[in-house]
Amino acid sequence: MSGRSLDQPHRRIRITLVEPEGKINFAFILRLAKNFGIEDICVVKPRFSIKDPEVLRFATRGIDLIEKGKVVVRETLNDCLENSKVVVCTTSKERGSRDVLRVAVSPVFLSLILPRTGTITLIFGRESTGLTREELKVCDIVSVIETGTSYNVLNLSHAVAIYLYELTARRCETGVFGNECSNETYKAMLREAWKISSALGKDEAYLVLKRILARASLRGKECGVLYKLFKSIAKLLVKD
Amino acid sequence: MSGRSLDQPHRRIRITLVEPEGKINFAFILRLAKNFGIEDICVVKPRFSIKDPEVLRFATRGIDLIEKGKVVVRETLNDCLENSKVVVCTTSKERGSRDVLRVAVSPVFLSLILPRTGTITLIFGRESTGLTREELKVCDIVSVIETGTSYNVLNLSHAVAIYLYELTARRCETGVFGNECSNETYKAMLREAWKISSALGKDEAYLVLKRILARASLRGKECGVLYKLFKSIAKLLVKD
């Protein structure tokens, strides 16, 4: 895992759902929370029992969160804001709106500006009508997913997927895709590539090989396979 | 909108689903396709009718895609690969695997290396068992969503949401590093690579070459150099 730890301290996300209407969406959100390591879910007046059989069926391993008491049901949105460092509302209303209440930033921008520690309360509105103006007023930041089309109203749980992906999973990205070859294998591979290129009188080809090998984020297993390939070719070309 | 136009030419994504099992997932994928402006969906042997009432209920405006003939049902995965510039397989199997077939990159990395034009076929496997080894072999690139937990098996339509978000909506922030080779040169290069690998009895080496070429963000000039290098080597190896 290139030195990253799954346990490194990071911002805690509290998923807050305001009056969710669909059991399947709710179940999928539990599964997503489990996928992305979220353990703080606050639900304001859901329109169903959070232990409905349909919820349990679609939540798969997300059921753990209910069993472990990580999902709480509350009467008001305010009850879900306790200890929040930053409160983020999500909306599907266009950023271009002249309404200052709806001025919104993208998930990527959000991931850059949110503090790295503390509780971030991420609020999602009703499937049918979203968040009210009064609800939007409690937020520090509003965010919208621009889909690049005029139909950017995502289904609730799919919006949650994208926010969790952007705000949690990518924190681990840095340095993950470096070249994994050992120095010895990498250098040996380049030596064979050089033999091949010069045997064929193609100095420029060596340069290109070197460059693309450096860019291709080689995995350990691939290094060995390529080294042996280059070595076999070189042996055939240089033996005379 | 940071100066970007919704109408600018961009990579076309073909969503390809191999034997999808769940109607609700399929419906959500249609809605996501509509959200993100995808108009090319190929479905290999679905386990339900694509016009099932449950599909129509959850797809909302995604129904347009069925009505307009943008969703095709095919008998084999191969039938879905026509005119692809790059074929990407998705998997939830860990990157750490020693199996060269499953060496995978993140969605972010993918968004950086995919060419800006041409058809990208993005393949998703069965909900239950994913893609087979034979299916993984047709891919140029394998990608995995790392969720930062040990449970990174996302529900199908949520994985689709994250890929579409990463590969289309954000396309305007990226796209600088796409493969610049012409289709002809690229294919010719792969043919020569195949000749070399099979002349040496190294089938796995071909797979690795194909994969690293797809990942290396080749520039136009580099394509020509590599093609000629491979051709020279192949000529020497195969002439007997």
What structural keywords apply?
homodimer, 2 domains, 240 residues, 6-stranded parallel sheet, alpha/beta, Alpha/beta knot
What is Rg of chain A? 25 Å
Greatest contact between two chains: A-B, 65 and 68 residues
So how many helices of chain A?
Answer: 9
The strand count of chain A comes to: 6
CATH-level-2 architecture of the largest domain in chain A: 3-Layer(aba) Sandwich
Largest sheet of chain A: 6 strands, parallel
Short description:
By secondary structure, chain A is of the alpha/beta class. In chain A, 41% of the residues lie in helices and 14% in strands.
Q: What would your notes on this structure say?
A:
2 copies of one chain form a homodimer. Chain A is built from 9 helices and 6 strands; from the N terminus they run βαβααββαβαβαααα. With 240 residues, chain A is of the alpha/beta class. In chain A, helix 1 runs parallel beside helix 2, helix 4 (107-113) runs parallel beside helix 6 (156-167) and helix 7 (183-199) packs antiparallel against helix 8. The longest helix of chain A has 19 residues, at 220-238. At the A-B interface, helix 1, helix 6, helix 8 and helix 9 of A face helix 1, helix 4, helix 6, helix 8 and helix 9 of B.
